[in-house]
Amino acid sequence: MKYLIVIEETSTGFSAYSPDIDGCVATGATKEEVEKNMGEALEFHLEGLRMGHQSIPSPHTYSNYIETGSFLKT
Asked: pTM, whole model, 2 decimals?
């Protein structure tokens, strides 16, 4: 499955979370590192859910960019 992750720059590097998986977060010094760490965190989190006989959330969020210039009135 593919899950959306949100990556945010912080004062010390980057952090990431998935809107589809509550409580699953990761950090990293670079974008590449936070993506790798988030992949590992997702696998670990989902394995914990499986081991606890809990349901695995289905991916349900998406992202898109919206051009704001067309919405602004000058």
From this structure: 0.84
